[in-house]
Amino acid sequence: MPFDFPFDALSQAIATFRAAHPRVRFDVLVDDSVSDFVDDNLDMAIRGGQPGGDHIVARRIATFGFARFASPVFGPGQGKRGPQNIPALVFKPRGAPAMSPRSAALIATQADYAVATNSFALLKQLALHGAGVAVLPAHLCDADVASGKLVDLPLGDVDTQVGLYLVYPSRRALTPKVKAFSDHLLNVIETSANPVQTATSQRMRTTARKG
């Protein structure tokens, strides 16, 4: 997942887990690339979208939606441009093509986008400043839509739901402490006031180590 998603659920889970198990230490690595469990000595990962291949075990923990947002200057009745002609603001993970499944409705080729970045926060700010249209996590824009700063434009037939997964390496046994924390994190997400918002965190690769 992009590394500028909120950390609410993970930070709450770590804090409460360590309160009960103070000798457990966490090494949390945050970025938007897919790392190797063995090479990076990882016990588990949190990934969105496609969690990985046959060599991993994925456990879905949440689902969240995406929508297409732009400044009201591009909204219906403003007479500026049709939705297909608005400059495209594209999410581009590091080391990946500019066009991702989330932005496929906006661009046909890499040459068609106006701005590409690996930050949803920056894409949102660009949309607020009228730079174009961006596919963004819907919950990040709810307040701006309610206040009239952004408008929600049609996204067509593209699937707007993205899963969030806990991911483990299938070739090695899950240790008791990792299993315990995984269950605890899932419980925190399920009991949160708004589990979709708190669970849609950045893709965080987490290693729990007992000192």
From TrEMBL:
**Pfam families in the cross-refs:** LysR_substrate (PF03466)
Q: Which InterPro entries match?
A: LysR-type_TF_proteobact-type, LysR_subst-bd
Q: From the record, give the transmembrane residue ranges.
A: none
In what residue span(s) does the LysR substrate-binding domain sit? 7-187
The record's PANTHER family line, in alphabetical order, gives: HTH-TYPE TRANSCRIPTIONAL ACTIVATOR TTDR-RELATED, HTH-TYPE TRANSCRIPTIONAL REGULATOR
State the similarity comment: Belongs to the LysR transcriptional regulatory family.
Question: What's the name of the protein?
Answer: HTH-type transcriptional regulator DmlR
What species is this protein from? Pandoraea sputorum
Its taxonomic path starts at: Bacteria, Pseudomonadati, Pseudomonadota, Betaproteobacteria, Burkholderiales
